[in-house]
Write a structure and sequence with these properties.
Blueprint (H helix, E strand, L loop, with lengths): L10 H15 L3 H12 L10 E6 L3 H15 L5 E8 L9 E6 L6 H14 L7 E7 L2 H4 L9 H14 L3 H9 L8 H8 L3 E7 L22 H10 L9 H11 L17 E7 L1 H14 L3 E6 L4 E2 H18 L4 E6 L2 E2 L12 H12 L7 E6 L11 E4 L1 H9 L4 H6 L3 H7 L3 E2 L10 E7 L2
Parallel strand pairs: 1-2, 1-4, 2-3, 4-5, 5-6, 7-9, 8-10
Antiparallel strand pairs: 9-14, 11-12, 11-14, 12-13
Helix pairs in contact: 1-11, 2-3, 7-9, 9-10, 12-13, 13-16
Length: 447
Amino acid sequence: MIQQSNRSATTEEATLKNAFAAAVAVADPQIIVPQCLAKIFPSSQEPQGKCLVVGAGKASASMASALESYAKVHWPQVQVSGVVLTRYGHNSPTTHIKIVEAGHPVPDQAGMDGAKEVLALAKQLQAGDVLIALVSGGGSSLLTLPIDGISIEDVRKTTEALLRSGAPIEEMNVVRKHLSAILGGNLARVAIARGARVEALLISDVTGDSPADIASGPCAADYSTYLDAVNILEKYRLGEDAIPMSVLNHLKQGVAGKKPETLKELDLVDAQVANHVIATAYKSLEAAADYVRSQGYESVILGDTITGEAQEVGISQAQLARDYLAKSDQPLALISGGECTVTIPTGVKGRGGRCSEYLLSLLAASSDLPGIAALAADTDGIDGSEKNAGAWFDPDIRQAGKAQDLVPEKFLAAHDCYGFFAELGALVETGPTLTNVNDFRIILLNN
């Protein structure tokens, strides 16, 4: 539930927050998981043998809860058990499937222990059994189980270095796949070797919605290589001073062909493996567009693949707003998704995340457009370092900022976008939504 601000909500504020709520609702695991299971296992074709449920991600616990409820009604004779990992605070009640809460985005020991349990259970599968993998954004760090010779601390340091470098999530995951015993299709590889059937249900938080990219594709063929991982570290100048030698040596050995590659398409020939993308960012953008149309706005979906530095995207979308205002006199909503990045300089702590940083940049870059309103929030309910999903502003918030002498540029320089919007009571606070289809951005234009 999105919390309203203390003052009476303006029409724009209500429209922004209701559009975000519509985007989140269409990705609700309690609705979409049963729908998918009914298609995968039509009537009288319920799973045979053992049904092992594993998974990871910010939505995985909610997905597990939905699966259990479905199985209780439709598969009363099927033995369902397993373990899924989720971020702290993203739990959901289950009876037979164990939920492990662990660290994200930086992995911790709880995640490693849970990942070990996932792999151990998969190694107990037999021919005729079914492995159902429940996967969503956040799974890459939650399923951190380093290959032999690399410690959890090594992976943690590597993850922190990549986060600070500003590398997009897709590139981060290429590196993590090649350090993992589970990611990059390795979980499916274990099940395939034992003759089990694999059905993976995926909630996408990545641009393009490729199963190989969602939580680093534990059950999908991987297109990336060890050389790609090495090139990414070199691209961001992450050498021995930032990346543990165990990681660098392992990747170099992989390039030399001394380590097995991640799962490839050739490995899936004759295998019973299917990946089902059941929720995407674009579907959520469409749901928001439908809502704002009902409120009298024309809607323009700019796409779900908008990436780049959050501040730069804010500036470019301010210009886009000017362009649309110049050629249209109708109320208009510009809606977009995709995952921006925030590069934090050394010595700067920062508060907030990519959504609120984008929004503050948009606010600063649109001082000549006093009538616009906008919201940016992460659909998982958590934007960066704090507990808010994101932030919003309308003309009243802009004026309140000026009245309080809050200078957006100063907060942007300090990467303290959270502090700016907190001062104005303009945070979007939902708590964990138990789903995750990437970031959501909307700009309302009223001439």
